Amino acid sequence: MDPVVVLVISLSCLLLLSLWRQRSGRGKLPPGPMPLPILGNILQIDAKNFPQSLTNLSKVYGPVFTLYLGMRPTVVLHGYEAVKEALIDHGEVFSGRGSFPVPDRVSKGLGVILTNGNRWREMRRFTLMTLRNFGMGKRSIENRVQEEARCLVEELRKTKSSPCDPTFLLECAPCNVICSIIFQNRFDYKDQCFLNLTQKLNENVKILSSLWLQVCNSFPALIDYFPGSHRKIFKNVADMMQYYLEKIKEHQESLDINNPRDFIDCFLIKMEEEKGNPQTEFTFEALVNLVNDLFGAGTETTSSTLRYGLLLLLKHPEVTAKVHEEIDRVIGRHRSPCMQDKSSMPYTEAVLHEIQRYVDLVPISLPHAVNSDIKFRNYFIPKGTTIITSLTSVLHDSKEFPNPEKFDPGHFLDKSGKFKKSDYFMPFSTGKRICAGEGLARMELFLFLTTILQNFHLKSVIDTKDLDATPIVNGFFSVPPTYKICFIPV
């Protein structure tokens, strides 16, 4: 038979199979747009603004609907009620981690962020316990953050009020805090190794939010056979893991099981305790991946929020002036801010919440999956189905936050000016997969931002009306735009 005919028949069969597979499940799954063969609904998604595409589709199909990203059905949860019902009311079933092909290829099912089942439970339990033992939520970690805030201020002073891009300095500060927990040491801001690590991390976040990575995650077959920026992620992570490996080996050589110095030591001790267990999850490879997870999660989200925060404070000088006034009244100029101050600073607390709400840093969170078959709102969702939760739809809910597209700290203040909590505030997601480092991130944001504003006035190099806070990409991550700022000593 002619090879061309064989090819045409084969492609036709593939198309028919794809159509059959997609249509056969649609009577059970929630409604959604009709998918194309192989491509699914990829052409109905604006890759430059994925969260807005989900909002547009929810207006047609409701708060729970199905998308095909390639040939894979994905159930989307849009709006507070749907997200809460799934992640909190049915938290155990929706606590699985969904498919995320490019990062999955990096982690190989290890670590804590992308793992599932017993491995995830063991790694998360160990991570939370160890972080608490090393001060998470305690005065000891607060002292570390305060010290790093002072180091950050000294570096900002070295700019001598000249225009600067704050990206690197704001990345170094939270990175040093997590490094002190993992490696027991911080880096000098001019350390070349430190610079390389943070640059690779920053680059990976931008690539993960790019159009090409969305294509790769929808069509995983491309990952192995096509060139592209996903290979740069693999190279960057390999380089970073090589560094972690060297640090772990140094720890092994100087380990004192009776006196653990940091997170790595605690894991190595646990490995020794589990040596006789053939099913142990505590392996050398698991440790490298866990360190990679903690390093990335403990650095990039906080640093990006700080960059966004300073940009928004530049753009809204009236807000900045009120924060300065509250800092002067509650803290003054002669001591470092501390967490105890927060309860006396409702406006600053509202500003920090509004920054996180407004920037919507991780718009669709990480993908979830259902651990078992479930009937959800009269729909049948089979075990293993990937779930996307639109955090944008919760953080920008117009009923809870009037004029959600406007930056307004009043969203978190009552009529008497007191701080007002909201169940809709979930930038760290919610339920069993909520960010393990939420407490540390909140502490860092408060202490870093108040310490900066205690010591500096912020000055824009262009008219504040011309400042644009629109993210440069808005896929997996809302990547803040670059800008220049002057730090003028108070």
UniProtKB/TrEMBL annotation:
One of its GO terms (molecular function) is iron ion binding. CDD domains: CYP2C-like. PANTHER family: CYTOCHROME P450 2C9, CYTOCHROME P450 508A4-RELATED. Its cofactor is heme. InterPro entries: Cyt_P450, Cyt_P450_CS, Cyt_P450_E_grp-I, Cyt_P450_sf, Cytochrome_P450_fam2. This is unspecific monooxygenase. It is an enzyme of class 1 (oxidoreductase). Residues 1-27 form the signal peptide. Transmembrane segments: none annotated. Belongs to the cytochrome P450 family. Its EC number is 1.14.14.1. Pfam families: p450 (PF00067). One of its GO terms (biological process) is xenobiotic metabolic process. It is found in: Endoplasmic reticulum membrane; Microsome membrane. Heme binds at residue 435. It is a peripheral membrane protein. GO terms for cellular component: endoplasmic reticulum membrane. Its main location: endoplasmic reticulum. Keywords: Endoplasmic reticulum, Heme, Iron, Membrane, Metal-binding, Microsome, Monooxygenase, Oxidoreductase, Signal. Coiled coil: none annotated.
